[in-house]
Amino acid sequence: MSEDGQRRTRLRRRRPPRDAAATMSLIAHLTELRNRVAKSLLAIALGTVVGFLWYDHGLLTFLSDPYCRLPNELRLQGDGDCRLVVLDVFGGVLLRLKIAFIAGTVLSSPFWLYQLWAFVTPGLKRNEKRYTIGFVVASTTLFALGSVLAYLTLRKGLELLLTLAGDEVAFQLTAELYLGFVISLLIAFGLSFELPLIAVALNLVGVLSYQALKKSRRWIFFLTIVFAAFVTPTQDPFTMLAMAGPMVLLFEMAIQIARFVDRRRARRADLEHFHDVDDDEASPLDATPSALETTPPAYVDDLRREDQPADGPAHTRG
Questions:
Q1: Which residues lie closer than 8 Å to 210 by C-beta, 6 or more apart?
Q2: Burial class of residue 244 (count of CB atoms within 10 Å of its CB; 0-12, 13-18, 19+)
Q3: b/e per residue, 79-88, with b = 16+ CB within 10 A?
Q4: In DSSP terms, which residues pair with 259 in a beta bridge?
Q5: Confidence at residue 50, expressed as pLDDT on a 0 to 100 scale
């Protein structure tokens, strides 16, 4: 072996072993947070570029389709086409950048959600770190389901709101107000579907128990309906029920998942009750005599009666 190889071997041997239980310093935490935020912002920037290019290839048509599918008498169009109005010179550019940024944030959500969870997991136990992939997949799926449900109910809610103005009123919406309304509705539905997942995550890390969720079930359902009434941008009963109904079902699923997790955790705790006790340490058993040890059983009294004569206790000889 060459001298350089021998020198590297000696340096490697002198290096102290890594402590698996070592904790990170504040500077290390801030450095890791900076790196993960930078990676998340880079992913969002790349997603924004994709959204900017996608704007003219189906994204704008997808967002404006619920408005264009309304009855013709509700839309005021001079040439019969379905087009949104921009009232500012720079309004089109700012609108495109805004929609591209929101689309990029949604498209890159699996990556920055993973970065968020990866920053939290070092403070969790080993068995709790296994839920990283499941957390990312579940959160992305729930957000997508909420957005899809909002898109499906958008036309009905929009038609209900516009028809309340009367038959003599026609609408020509601006692009900024309409697209802002649509995006806020999609985000509100997507984020609201994440709330049951937060309850499940708190239960998995041992912060929220099944008993607490069970006792608060009625309040959770009631507050869910109130939350849907305030969060939905349309403020109509149809959209509110479309949000509140699935959220109630998701919260009930979260409660049942917490019930299963707590039962499995209790069984594991029963099996591992004495695993942490040292071999030379006395087990934490209760040495207090039980009622069975202080009170003789009934068959002992029967044997004592059989040993005694019928006319009374036996006398000993003097």
A1: 203, 255, 258, 259, 261, 262
A2: buried
A3: eeeeebeeee
A4: none
A5: 92
This prediction's pTM: 0.65
Q: How many CA atoms lie within 13 A of 243 on its CB side?
A: 34
pLDDT per residue as tens digits for the range 138-185: 888 888 888 888 888 888 878 777 777 777 777 777 888 888 888 888
Radius of gyration of the chain from Cα atoms? 34
The DSSP call for residue 171 is: B
Helix (H/G/I), strand (E/B), else coil: 85: strand
Please measure the distance between the N-terminal and C-terminal CA atoms of the chain and give it in whole angstroms: 103
Q: Are 24 and 32 in contact (CB under 8 A)?
A: yes
Can you give the pLDDT at residue 163?
77
> Please, which residues have CB within 8 angstroms of residue 155's CB and are 6 or more apart in sequence?
66, 69, 70
Instruction: Specify the 3-state DSSP secondary structure of 281.
Output: coil
C-alpha closest to that of 59 among 228, 186, 241 = 186
Cα–Cα distance, 254 to 142 (Å, whole number)? 13
Q: What is the distance between the alpha carbons of residues 39 and 37, in angstroms, rounded to a whole number?
A: 5
Q: Which two tokens stand for residue 26?
A: 């504040």
Residue type, 136: V
Which amino acid type is present at position 217? Answer: R
Question: What's the one-letter identity of residue 74?
Answer: L
Report helix, strand or coil for 235: coil
Torsion angles phi and psi, residue 171, rounded to 5: -120, 145
Q: Residue 250's CB: how many other CB atoms inside 10 A?
A: 22
Cα three-residue angle 116-120-125, rounded to 5 degrees: 145
